[in-house]
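Regression test case RT-17, inverse folding.

Input:
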C-alpha cells in the first residue's frame, strides 16, 4: 500500500515522494510482515535523495495492519490502525495512546546515503532507531513480540 504522492522505480526497490511540500499522502507499507529472528525484527532504508522544503522529515516504523486491509492510504501515516512510528519533526507515534510524544531524533538532517534502521527488540518489543549503524533514538516500547509487524 502506498500514498498517491509516491512513485516507484521499475524494479520496485526504490520509492520517492512526488508531491509538493504542502501535500501529504507519502506513506508506504511493505508487502509482508518482518521476519522475527533471535534478537528481534529489523529493516533498513537508504536515503537516495533529500528535499528541503518540507516542515517534517521521514516518519518510519511498523504496523500490524496488512496492506490489503487498507482501502486507500490516509493523508497522514499515523492514521493507519495499529502503527508505531518515529521521526517526523522529532516525535514518536504510539497507536495505543493515540498521541505523539517527543523523541531525541529528528530526521530533517538526514543526508544522501544515510541508512535508517528500525529494530523491534526481542523479547521486550522495544523499538530502536539506528542511523548508519548507530543507535539514535528509542521509539515506542512493548510492541507485540513475535506477532506480524
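Golden output:
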Amino acid at each position: 500500500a502506498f500514498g498517491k504522492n509516491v512513485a516507484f522505480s521499475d524494479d520496485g526497490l526504490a520509492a520517492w515522494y512526488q508531491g509538493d511540500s504542502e501535500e501529504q499522502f507519502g506513506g508506504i507499507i511493505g508487502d509482508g510482515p518482518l521476519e522475527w529472528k533471535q534478537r528481534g525484527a529489523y529493516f533498513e532504508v537508504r536515503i537516495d535523495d533529500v528535499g528541503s522544503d518540507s516542515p517534517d522529515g521521514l516518519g518510519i516504523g511498523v504496523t500490524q495492519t496488512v496492506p490489503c486491509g487498507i482501502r486507500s492510504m490516509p493523508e497522514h501515516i499515523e492514521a493507519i490502525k495499529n502503527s508505531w512510528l518515529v521521526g517526523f519533526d522529532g516525535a514518536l507515534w504510539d497507536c495505543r495512546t493515540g498521541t505523539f510524544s517527543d523523541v531525541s531524533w529528528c530526521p530533517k538532517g538526514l543526508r544522501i546515503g544515510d541508512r535508517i534502521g528500525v529494530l523491534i527488540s526481542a523479547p521486550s518489543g522495544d523499538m530502536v532507531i539506528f542511523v548508519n549503524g548507530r543507535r539514535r533514538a528509542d521509539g515506542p516500547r512493548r510492541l507485540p513480540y513475535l506477532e506480524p509487524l
